[in-house]
Amino acid sequence: MSHGPTRRRLLAAAITVAPGLLLVAEAAPRAPGSPVTAHTRWGLLIDVARCNAGCTACVDGCRHEQGWGGAASDGPWIRKIEATERQTNRSVSLPVMCQHCAEPPCVEVCPTGASLRRADGIVLVDRHRCIGCRYCVMACPFDARFFVDTEVHDQRPYTPRGKGTAEGCTLCVHRLDAGRLPACVEACASAGGAMLFGDLIDPTSEISQALRARASTALRAELGLASAIRYQGL
């Protein structure tokens, strides 16, 4: 499978916010019932300087909303990690989840089309088409796709889950489609205020303005996946 220049040419963009501006969730993403189109691409800007190492608000909010974590095999849809710069020993704490790439490796390797990318850039799994091959799990460079190998109980009606299928962060697509923010963003807003969510394409959105203001990076930017999750201060 080729990953030539046309598939891997997009690099992480430079971003920022004005000095002293607190990153918070912007207004509700879109009107309920409005169509999903390629004119929108949802993304997150995470300011690691505001991400406290001891804070798990985003993880707890996601777990409560989506219902994962009930079994030992449940992979965390979002997790906190510590990253240390080798030369300076500077350490930062940051959340990691599906990066919702423009060029998602999980979609490229899926033999059934179960791994898919919506028109608005959200990467999902169609569990009716998933055959449990785990190719997507192996292909994800962020360790953000998981395989469910035990029975799932206490499922949320808006997030069907099942044994023998792959899963990962959906950016709370059910909330977005209802005009609400992702659970992690909502939880973070009342904690460290490190997450800014919005439309990466709309030049007037808060996140687009922040992306034009100060440098940021994407995880594994060298892969050219053009992920929708960006990190400031990493």
Tally of separate domains? 1
Give the CA-CA distance, first to last residue.
32 Å
The rough form would be described as: globular
Mean pLDDT over the full residue set: 86
Tell me the CATH architecture: 2-Layer Sandwich
CATH topology: Alpha-Beta Plaits
What do these coordinates show?
With 234 residues, the chain is α+β, with helices and mostly antiparallel strands. It has a single domain, classed as Alpha-Beta Plaits (2-Layer Sandwich). Helices cover 18% and strands 17% of the residues. It has helices at 5-8, 57-66, 105-109, 135-139, 173-176, 183-189, 206-211; strands at residues 42-47, 78-84, 91-97, 115-117, 123-125, 146-147, 166-167, 195-199, 229-232. Strands 8-1-9 form a 3-stranded mixed β-sheet. A two-stranded antiparallel ribbon has the order 2-3. Strand 2 and strand 3 (91-97) form a beta hairpin. Helix 2 (57-66) runs antiparallel to helix 6 (183-189). It is globular, with a radius of gyration of 17 Å. It starts with a helix and ends with a strand.
Question: What would a concise description of this structure say?
Answer:
The chain has helices at 5-8, 57-66, 105-109, 135-139, 173-176, 183-189, 206-211; strands spanning 42-47, 78-84, 91-97, 115-117, 123-125, 146-147, 166-167, 195-199, 229-232. It is α+β, with helices and mostly antiparallel strands.
